[in-house]
Amino acid sequence: MLARIRAVFADAQTEGLDQLYDVINAARDLAPDSDFQACYDLVMASGGPEVETWINFTVTTATRFDLDDQPEPEQFLSVLEECCDARREQQRVQPSE
């Protein structure tokens, strides 16, 4: 299932996911002792365009899985964390972006 979720993230068809990753990473930087879930929850509670992007993404991608084979939310968040980590590494290597 994780491979299928990663494929959906790789072909996101949603604008603004990089900004979502950046906002979550900023929350992680502000609370380095917090786990990913806590930082994600903080960002989601704050609202804003990044949250709207995430909602649009999850609604759109839900249709890419069979109704009886939907990923667990924890699996989706695990891949989101991977994407946030990859974005952070990309910015570390190419800071001008």
Structure description:
The protein has helices at 2-10, 17-30, 36-46, 49-62, 73-93. The protein is mainly α and 97 residues long. It has one domain. Helix 2 (17-30) packs across helix 5. The radius of gyration is 13 Å and the shape is globular. The model has no long low-confidence stretch (mean pLDDT 94).
User: Helical element count?
Assistant: 5
What pattern of helices and strands is seen along the backbone?
Answer: HHHHH
Regarding quaternary structure, what we see is: single chain
Mean pLDDT: 94
Work out the number of β strands: 0
Helix content: over 70%
Largest sheet: none
Weakly predicted, low-confidence segments:
none
Residues in β-strands, percent? under 5%
What is Rg? Answer: 13 Å
Instruction: Identify the overall geometry.
Output: globular
Structural domains: how many: 1
Broad structural category = mainly alpha
Cα distance, first to last residue? 31 Å
Topology:
Elements (H helix, E strand, L loop, with lengths): L1 H9 L6 H14 L5 H11 L2 H14 L10 H21 L4
Helix pairs in contact: 1-5, 2-3, 2-4, 2-5
